[in-house]
Amino acid sequence: MYQHLQSIAAFVAVAETGAFNRAADRLGVKPSVVSHHISKLEDYLGATLIYRTTRKLSLSEHGRILFEASRTWMDHTGNALEQIMDAQNEAIGALNVALPTFLPDPRIEAAILNFIKIHPNVSIALNYSDRIADMLDDHIDLSIRVGTPSDSSFITRKLSVVSHALVASPDLLVRCGTPETPQQLEEMPFVAMNSFGDSVILERDGEEVEAHFRTSQIFTNSIIGALSAAENGVGFAIMPPALFEDAVAAGKLVKLLPQWSLPTWIVQAIWPDTSRRVTLTRRLVDHIATSLKTT
């Protein structure tokens, strides 16, 4: 069996990525090399492992059996290797990390970059997107998310808590007036985002008031786009300080109802415990958490 370990690794890569070229990219070889290993393995077994069509690849019944067994073996072997490397106090490996397009706590990104600097044998792919990645299908080792995760089967760790505020451009306040109460927000245009609903609860000295926003002229799935809309006076918006502070300092935005506070949002690290790089993932998360405590 030992002479077929490379072929088995190539087969698992194809099964996980669904394509010979993507498997080749993961393994750092040419697609022809991957194809050779699959053919070599099928010849040795005398069975078809992968059905190939012009549109997609699919595993045969024999292929599914081999994939499940091989993936379990590789997961256990990978975890053992990571534990040994971790015991030697040297982090080694590659991680895929998913983050939102804008992370409201920039200290987390700084901690990730610092982790790379102090561990020269670690490489990290940072995948920024407002789409919540499917961690298993997209082969994500760690996801940094704002809010509560919908899938409770993953491991989670709270990293920080971020506040938000209401901001608007001076031009909008000239046109609509500066609100003095939460209820007056309901008469102003609002920049709608899928991260927020059509209302918000504000709190002051134990008093809570829910303000309902009127229909907006603009909707965006990007908080960066919402910032631009707010700066251009299309409507007021809900923003984290890390995003609006420069605009406020430059006079492009003004904080509304500063004596009132909005609900806070939790920034969490989320990862599957089935990853072959789970030890390295935990080491990165520990580094981030420690960095946040010291800043």
Task: Provide a descriptive summary of the structure in words.
This protein is an alpha/beta fold and 295 residues long. It is built from nine helices and 14 strands. The strands form five sheets. It has a five-stranded mixed sheet with strand order 4-3-5-14-6, covered by helices on one side. The chain has a three-stranded antiparallel sheet with strand order 12-7-13. A two-stranded antiparallel ribbon has the order 1-2. β9 and β10 form a beta hairpin. α1 crosses α2. The longest helix has 27 residues. The relative contact order is 0.15. The mean pLDDT is 86.
SSE blueprint and pairings:
Layout: H1 5-17, H2 20-27, H3 31-45, E1 50-52, E2 57-59, H4 61-87, E3 93-99, H5 106-118, E4 122-128, E5 142-146, E6 155-162, E7 165-168, H6 170-176, E8 191-193, E9 199-204, E10 207-212, E11 218-220, H7 223-231, E12 237-239, H8 241-249, E13 254-256, E14 265-271, H9 278-293
Parallel strand pairs: 3-4, 3-5, 8-11
Antiparallel strand pairs: 1-2, 5-14, 6-14, 7-12, 7-13, 9-10
Report the span from N to C terminus.
52 Å
Determine the number of helices (DSSP H or I, runs of at least 4 residues): 9
Structural class: alpha/beta
> What Rg, in angstroms, do the CA atoms define?
25 Å
Spatial order of the strands forming the largest sheet = 4-3-5-14-6
Helix content: 25-40%
